UniProtKB/TrEMBL annotation:
Gene3D superfamilies noted in UniProt: Protein N-terminal glutamine amidohydrolase, alpha beta roll
Pfam families: Nt_Gln_amidase
Similarity remark: Belongs to the NTAQ1 family.
Protein name (database record): Protein N-terminal glutamine amidohydrolase
Length: 190
């Protein structure tokens, strides 16, 4: 069964991918609750917070290359051994098959310098909804917004006002998620 969601209908704010994906998870929970257990949020980052992704809307490069500090995508098990990727910042289709996303957005990891090799925190959507919080302070420098914030209130939980850095950190065990290197991540979803 597919999730009927169009990118135009998604809550979206540029440079707030973690909140955009949280809202995709919320949409599935509210509109397709029986499918939520087939959905995950995925943080992509590394120790240096220098991760390359291609086919990105923010790019000025002909291949769509952007070096993000981190990025967050949504993955859905559409049918046995077939996964769809929902990335609101890509120029690829929405959704996009995992195989196409792997080829055109992730590229190969073994060709990258060590400082660019990616790690992936894979979090079940229900856990992400229950645990993620951000007060957006990471987007404020010298008292000014680096990028305009979303027009809705920050996402908070009863126990946390801001744990975004724990989700981004691939060594933190303070938040849920399975940490995978590139090879294991690709193997899990291919």
């Amino acid at each position: 069964m597919s999730i009927s969601i169009n990118s135009e209908d998604c809550v979206y704010t540029s440079c707030y991918c973690e909140e955009n994906v949280w809202h995709v998870c919320k949409y599935v929970k509210e509109n397709h609750p029986g499918l939520l257990d087939k959905c995950v949020a995925v943080f992509i980052s590394n120790e240096k917070q220098t991760i390359p992704l291609w086919s990105q809307k923010q790019s000025t490069d002909e291949k769509g290359l952007v070096i993000w500090d981190y990025h967050v995508i949504f993955i859905y098990l559409a049918k046995e051994n077939y996964f769809d990727v929902y990335d609101l910042d890509t120029t690829l289709p929405f959704p996009c098959s995992f195989e196409e996303y792997k080829t055109k957005a992730l590229g190969l990891d073994h060709d990258l310098q060590t400082k660019f090799q990616r790690y992936f925190r894979v979090i079940p959507a229900e856990q992400y909804l229950a645990t993620f919080s951000s007060d957006r302070s990471h987007m404020i420098k010298d008292g000014k917004w680096l990028k305009p914030p979303p027009n809705y209130p920050p996402i908070l939980t009863a126990t946390s006002a801001n744990n975004l850095n724990d989700f981004i950190s691939m060594s933190s065990r303070e938040v849920p998620g399975q940490i995978l290197n590139y090879r294991d991540f690709v193997s899990k979803f291919s």
